[in-house]
Amino acid sequence: MSMANENIQLGQAMQAALQEANTALHTWLEHYRPYTSNGRCAAYIPALANADPSQLGVTIIGSDGKLAQSGDCEALFTLQSVSKVIGFIAACVEHGAAYVLERVDVEPTGDAFNSIVRLEVHKPGKPFNPMINAGAITVSSLLGGKSPQQKIDSILAFIEKMVGRRVGINEEVYQSEWQTADRNRSLAYYLKGTGFLESSVEQALEVYLKECSIEVHTQDIAMIGLVLAHDGYHPFRKEQLFPKEVAKLAKALMVTCGMYNASGKFAAFIGVPAKSGVSGGIMAAVPTHASAPDSPFPAGCGIGIYGPAIDEYGNSVAGGMLLKHIAKEWDFNIF
Amino acid sequence: MSMANENIQLGQAMQAALQEANTALHTWLEHYRPYTSNGRCAAYIPALANADPSQLGVTIIGSDGKLAQSGDCEALFTLQSVSKVIGFIAACVEHGAAYVLERVDVEPTGDAFNSIVRLEVHKPGKPFNPMINAGAITVSSLLGGKSPQQKIDSILAFIEKMVGRRVGINEEVYQSEWQTADRNRSLAYYLKGTGFLESSVEQALEVYLKECSIEVHTQDIAMIGLVLAHDGYHPFRKEQLFPKEVAKLAKALMVTCGMYNASGKFAAFIGVPAKSGVSGGIMAAVPTHASAPDSPFPAGCGIGIYGPAIDEYGNSVAGGMLLKHIAKEWDFNIF
Amino acid sequence: MSMANENIQLGQAMQAALQEANTALHTWLEHYRPYTSNGRCAAYIPALANADPSQLGVTIIGSDGKLAQSGDCEALFTLQSVSKVIGFIAACVEHGAAYVLERVDVEPTGDAFNSIVRLEVHKPGKPFNPMINAGAITVSSLLGGKSPQQKIDSILAFIEKMVGRRVGINEEVYQSEWQTADRNRSLAYYLKGTGFLESSVEQALEVYLKECSIEVHTQDIAMIGLVLAHDGYHPFRKEQLFPKEVAKLAKALMVTCGMYNASGKFAAFIGVPAKSGVSGGIMAAVPTHASAPDSPFPAGCGIGIYGPAIDEYGNSVAGGMLLKHIAKEWDFNIF
Amino acid sequence: MSMANENIQLGQAMQAALQEANTALHTWLEHYRPYTSNGRCAAYIPALANADPSQLGVTIIGSDGKLAQSGDCEALFTLQSVSKVIGFIAACVEHGAAYVLERVDVEPTGDAFNSIVRLEVHKPGKPFNPMINAGAITVSSLLGGKSPQQKIDSILAFIEKMVGRRVGINEEVYQSEWQTADRNRSLAYYLKGTGFLESSVEQALEVYLKECSIEVHTQDIAMIGLVLAHDGYHPFRKEQLFPKEVAKLAKALMVTCGMYNASGKFAAFIGVPAKSGVSGGIMAAVPTHASAPDSPFPAGCGIGIYGPAIDEYGNSVAGGMLLKHIAKEWDFNIF
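ok -> structure tokens follow
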């Protein structure tokens, strides 16, 4: 909650602006909270099903260290598909983007996140993009380290660099994921059969499902969003964590495929690179240039949202509405 | 060639910068011209098949009126799928975006531009986006005017406002398109059967194919790109030609679905909203904020490219390479 | 009602057996008639929608001229998809089976009768079989005669030879079909685009839809079934109307693809070559060898059924049940 | 080689007819043997790849015990997909057909034998028929016995009853199958996820792949074909081994889906229920009624063919031609 505050001295005018931003954010969040009842928590594992559907939280971290938060911003949740962006970046850092892109394409599909059809219909069965399960499982086999544990450790270390704290795996969620992973195993064996999976199926799945089970709060993903907004540069650590080209690529993927089958609508009506997970998380990156000069975050920001009641596409219902409102009010749009 | 020059007085420093930009552009264009031999002209109608595959031309128009050009920038070609963006915007202006979006979605597909599969598989068969034929035919039935002639006149008038001259239809191309339109008729009758086509099939096709047959040169589409870059505002006419929301929506569609089945790759590796056609045209929009301050076009620009030798996806081979090079050198990227 | 009776002298024992068969048939028919309420008449055109859903009729004609009938056996209905078998045979007679089979395959699909997906997914787009619309439209372009009228005349003459009377086209049905033919036009234009349609789309559709609109009663299709049962030989006219090989081929198609997406179930649980139409007709052929020696029709028979209340697959609900019962009781099964 | 001979006393005229049949069979077999060069042995595992592609053998066993054989009729090969019929019958015997049919449908698909697409596209993902891998894996989980070993033992015992000798599993083939089973594992996990698989994936696969690896010669499958021809009745043991309804159902499935994606063509041009495997085996059943009275096998027969050079569909090239020739010459056809 405090890392940004510790690192950065805010001037008085900035404090006033921040106060104003927080007030606005709070009003908006409470305005959209009732819409959580239009969604339902993901039901395929108990840990997700038992989430409180009325929760809604947001954290925004500005490039200058401004921190605006509201609602259930400290609630813990698992990354789920939000981890797909992080894993993709980590694999590119490990092997170079070219190597990764030989094993996964970057084209949107319009198919369900867990669809297997295209692997059969489009020869030779290269996964269409790393934001769907087939692609993400492939990518998880490319992470740094030999054993699954090493691969997971490398991801956790990578996240720590970005968010400033060590996050961990929710073992209960992971165990549930592991036990209900039939469809993902089906995808993984298909990929093994067509040669797109480097490690064994079981190892790839362990890594993939542990990534999905990494537990965070909204500030964590806001921080990752902020690093993405700055093309891989950490504005507080003042360190380039991954290449600009990889950041651009990741943000392009977030826009074209980041919000499940509503990605096109998010691009069209919100215009901010974002990635969602079925746990209700949304991670968004607002580059400096896509932020209005008169907004509270004129130099760009990272946004983390959590709202476990999701819609038919898998995206947080109220979270998506809140992001749209923020983007409109503060004129965040890359297009 | 001259509209921009006539309207705008350029200072001396600017003249020097422009000279430099033109020189660079010329070098790059001639560097990529040999790659035209990696592609082939579209072969389904004689008028396209008979194009000179070695042609390559580019026009860039800056928000300040700067005009950089090189190669076959004055060669005439038909809009083909580039017209899909224009038709979509015009339909939104006529009916409001909400009305249009009830009849066509904004989601990318990963399918071929002329694919019919998704209309059957995804009930109720709403076209996935206006950048594929099914969606564009639907949109063509929504243009202003009752008769096909009126609809085409309204499109031509709309284009005239943007490019500053009256463009026309290449009748030879249109006749050929009409005679080889079996697949498009198949799509149109399918849409008629599912209720997504407002006009008759024959009328919708006449409008659609005439739009495809509108003849332009690179400066024309660069101008349209420039208006898109400015969110519908014409920087020389100083007039808002269509709503900002529609422009954002159109640019989002260009990014997610504008470059056929290489849209994801264009987003990932170039990062500039662009729309291509099988005639070899590429129209790109670089918003002010996505342009580097030290580039020759710091306030954004529109780019028009023509190179009739296309690749397996339907995009100009050398044109795509040139666009990528320009975007990299001058740091144009929305992400 | 009488053609068979006129032609054939029945012995007294045979008369008794026939009486018994008729009684049994009547009992069964009335037993299954209430099940008509489990189905609904096809609703896409008024003439079908307005049929009386409680109707159920059957005619069985034995190779020896025995005629058993019950229920609404004289009700008139249009052939609809039952015509697909007849058109296929006629085209084979006209061009030879080899020629026809270059333009349409004989493989079942598991897809809907009006599906277009496979034409795109399986290159080069040859229709999978003549029992689905895509295949039947292709076949209709191969009928004898140059104009649509000549082609229809040749079909009507062909039917006359089999059924012993001139049947005609229900013009009201045809007009309705023509006006609601968007999907069929879509299929036809697709086939035109891929080169599988010999005539113009409009001509092929006129022929196809007129075939569908041919009006018959159950005895008509029972007679055609009888000729099929005898491998193209007309047992009363004592004339080979079409080659044995074509008859075998047609019956194989009826078994593998004749009952829409319930063809497998009809084969598995009934075992009699049959073809249905959405108007509620079922035409079945029981070859001599597939008929039990102690049944009332030991030398095989043709069966015509009409019951306009159809199920989700498009097959007459009570008609299918009645056919199953008849086949079981009298041990008709080709397997 | 001799069981039939031992059990049955053949009269002298019959001996002469048999001699003639054997001579004819030999001539035909050697005529078609050169066509083996048009095919290739399955290459996905060494044991199949190393088969002698020029081999071709046939055994026909008549209902009266007549045994005609030619060529490589004693060569051993693994059942592969021929086992799908046997497993399906055994599961029906164990649970009743109704129970089995709740877990697998009986509709042909037109898709590849190992296709996964339809499981996703057609909700709720019930396998379309037991002759494709998805269906056969489901069925293998329904065999009698608790452990995989018990299930395999029950299948081997069932086969023994039909063929009169204990056949075994080719362990080398099984090990290879197990190691290259990625696609089958993908199918099995998909089915597990949708609830259509009763046992664990690993157990179902062990059973399925061991069934595929059962080693036989042509006389074995000819005997099974003979029992099928007699609707489950063993004409030499004089014992009903499985219900008539199950036999009819199995033969219907062989006709509609038994010969991979050439099933329609086999039905149309040969007309004999048959099941093939990628090892080059074909098992066919000619019911009494479908056999010409003046053929050497007037009371029906079972046919076993082996020819490891297979075509693009997965069917023995020369084996299919030989079966077609036999069926034509001796007038075997169920239609």
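Chain C has a mean pLDDT of 95.
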